[in-house]
Specification:
The structure is a homodimer. Helix content of chain A is 28%, strand content 25%. In chain A, strands 1, 2, 3, 4, 5, 6, 7, 8, 9 and 10 form a ten-stranded mixed sheet that branches.
């Protein structure tokens, strides 16, 4: 059996949050964090001492999630007394109203929320003129009232796809690699008139999503041609012309996992990679 | 020329708001209202003494809007100095972030935001199980975690359509009629898994939308059959079994106007109706 079975019973926990009032995912002394709220809610509902929760995407301060995935290991005897089906509602009931647990279920064998993940997908949303501003979406849509040419932004996307070194879009960590596989990068105007950048990768390094969007926005405002973001990426160094966009517009939409037979093998591969390059998957899920 | 032309120049103002922190549309001494915020923003941007704004739907405390329409008459000489195209952005810039003006334009001849309107459309949104709760939508979606049978609710809708006396769903005002034409009433589960009731009428009386939704919810929870809401309507009196749903889930989505040649005639008809029955159109736009 896998590591999780030896330690107890692993639960997969899917959650959503409005990140506005949080200092990000990870526990930080004296600050309000999502991890801390979830761990305390689990302890309350399960009547256990605090449990450690592991997450797919360690989102930054102010970043939101609609498809965050976490896991937690609970003692096997606790689970026997639990109605797992009802746990999501009970957790949501004790959590503050800017966090909700949408699902709790027994994890598949080998499942690790962080190491089994094969992709993370984010959306960045911008209201670029007064006609599309919606106060009901002010928490997860950036209001920036300068018209964007979303077609020019879309034209810049394909050249960034694939396995590349994204150091030009990442905040440096000593010794860390910024090599990632960008699986998807699109820009379009949605039915509400918002400019939406959809981006998916095996993993992201720190500030990567917000820097890529910053480069696309520079194109959308006509300051640079559509060929420019790929030139910056190829340059391999951060440049002041690329703005790291505010967290407000960024939401972790979904995390992808392989089919159950592959979960443990994927987790083993990701853990091994972590040994070779400490940042490759640690910061890798960072939703930035 | 129409009344508006004699008084100055009429502007049509489209707006959106998160009603959570407001005591409704209409100015009330000592309370925060949308009308007050808009009138003060107009005075600031136009550098005029306070102006009176007329609105299509006088929404209650806590009710939201994505398609609210208002008009304001400004002195003709003020307008000559104005760039009307840029007014929406300037107003949104001075308004608090829970109100936005999406468009300002010269009103068509005969236009009256309130009296020219031929329909108001509202949506009521409910998250009925933990899997569809989204903290980013907590301001305009009611969280009520009891599963709803949306098909049973939909089955109850057609029998309420048409010209009827909705007194059973309206808070009484002495001498007021509750006869309205319900043009549309649907219930469905949307792509986010929310139960959404769409309702459109020529006008609404006080609490009408929220009471109709309350009757549908009673059906959705299995407490009454799909034939029940129409029986209550036909009864003509309010009954305690119909809950007036909370304002949180209710949003004014759109207001309809006839083609420009009909705007003045419609306004004249609505004003004449108001003389015959003071509540018919006064409370008529009330978004409840």
């Amino acid at each position: 059996m896998t590591e999780s079975r030896r330690e107890g019973t692993r639960l997969r926990v899917d959650l959503r949050f409005d990140g506005t009032a949080f200092a990000g995912w990870a526990v930080q002394p004296g600050l309000r964090t999502i991890q801390d709220e979830i761990e305390r809610a689990l302890a309350t509902v399960l009547r256990l001492p605090p449990l450690r929760v592991t997450v797919a995407g360690r989102t930054d301060a102010g970043v939101h999630a609609r498809g965050q995935v976490a896991h937690v290991d609970v003692p096997a005897d606790t689970l026997q007394a639990l109605d797992v089906e009802r746990l999501a509602g009970r957790l949501t009931g004790v959590l503050p109203d800017d966090i909700a647990v949408t699902s709790v279920r027994l994890a598949e064998p080998g499942f690790d929320a962080r190491f089994s993940a094969i992709w993370r997908r984010y959306a960045y949303r911008i209201a670029d003129h007064p006609g599309v501003v919606d106060p009901l979406r002010r928490h997860d849509v950036l209001r920036r009232l300068r018209p964007l040419d979303h077609e020019a932004m879309a034209a810049a996307c394909p050249a960034l796809l694939g396995l590349r070194d994204f150091a030009a879009f990442c905040k440096n960590r000593p010794g860390a690699t910024a090599i990632r596989t960008l699986q998807r990068l699109d820009c379009a105007r949605n039915c509400d008139g918002l400019v939406v950048v959809d981006v998916q990768a095996d993993a992201f390094c720190h500030s990567m999503v917000r820097s890529i969007v910053g480069a696309l926005v520079a194109v959308g405002e006509g300051r640079y041609p559509s060929t420019w973001p790929a030139l910056i990426q190829a340059g391999g160094r951060r440049v002041p012309e690329v703005t790291v966009m505010p967290a407000t517009g960024l939401t972790l939409e979904a995390v992808g996992y392989p089919e159950p037979p592959e979960l443990a093998a994927q987790a083993d591969r990701a853990r091994a990679l972590r040994v070779l390059s400490p940042d490759a998957t640690t910061g890798g899920g960072a939703g930035r």
